[in-house]
Design brief:
By secondary structure, the chain is mainly alpha-helical. The protein folds into 2 domains: 88 residues, no CATH class; 60 residues, Orthogonal Bundle (DNA polymerase, domain 1). 49% of the residues lie in helices and 9% in strands. It has a two-stranded antiparallel sheet with strand order 1-2. Strands 3-4 form a two-stranded parallel ribbon. The radius of gyration is 18 Å and the shape is globular. The termini are far apart. About 8% of the residues have low confidence.
C-alpha cells in the first residue's frame, strides 16, 4: 500500500515538473504546436550550457502573427517564469508589453459597446474592462476553468484581486448569459 502511495506521489511530482509548465504558459496550445513554432514566435530564447534551448512565452503563431489572447496570457503569467539569465527578464517583458500596448491603444478607441460575457470571454475581451489587466484577466480565466461558470456577475468578486472598487467599475460592463 505504501509503495503505491509513493509511486503516486512521484508521478504527481513529475507531472508538475514536466507537464504543467507547458500547460501553464501556453493557454490551450498543445505541446506539439509549441514545439513546431520557430524561435521568433517566443518573447525570449535562452541557451543552456548543454546547448538546449529554453524558449519563453510563445505569443506568435507559426506564420508570425500575434495571438492576442496568448500574448495577454504570457503577460499574466510572466512572474511565474524561471530564467537562466536574469538580464533577459526585462528584455522579454518589454517585448511583450510593447505589443500589448499597441493592442490596447487600438482597443481603447473602440470602447465597450455591449456587455462582456465573463463565462465565455477570451482574455482580449476581459482586458477591455476597466482596471482589468493581463494578470487579473488570467486569474478570471483560471478561476472559470477551475470552478466552472459564474452564476451571477457578483461571483466575479470571488476572483483574487477583484474587490468592491474594481467590481463597481466593471459591473455594468459584464454579464453571465
Amino acid at each position: 500500500m505504501m509503495k503505491n502511495i509513493g509511486k503516486a506521489c512521484v508521478g504527481c511530482i513529475l507531472f508538475f515538473i514536466f507537464v504543467l509548465p507547458y500547460c501553464a504558459y501556453s493557454q490551450g496550445w498543445p505541446v506539439t504546436k509549441i514545439k513546431s513554432l520557430p524561435d521568433s514566435s517566443f518573447a525570449m530564447v535562452e541557451v543552456k550550457k548543454d546547448r538546449t534551448k529554453l524558449r519563453h512565452f510563445p505569443y506568435k503563431d507559426i506564420n508570425g502573427n500575434i495571438d492576442i489572447n496568448q500574448l495577454i496570457y504570457c503577460l499574466g503569467t510572466f512572474s511565474n517564469e524561471t530564467w537562466l539569465n536574469p538580464e533577459n527578464v526585462e528584455t522579454a517583458r518589454k517585448r511583450l508589453e510593447e505589443r500589448y500596448y499597441r493592442f490596447k491603444l487600438n482597443q481603447s478607441q473602440e470602447g465597450i459597446k455591449t456587455a462582456i460575457n465573463i463565462n465565455t470571454a477570451g482574455l482580449k475581451d476581459m482586458v477591455r474592462l476597466p482596471n482589468i489587466g493581463p494578470v487579473t484577466a488570467v486569474k478570471i480565466y483560471r478561476f472559470r476553468e477551475t470552478h466552472g461558470h459564474f452564476r451571477n456577475v457578483e461571483d466575479i468578486k470571488k476572483v483574487e484581486g477583484i474587490g468592491p472598487a474594481i467590481f463597481a467599475g466593471i459591473k455594468y460592463y459584464i454579464k453571465v448569459r
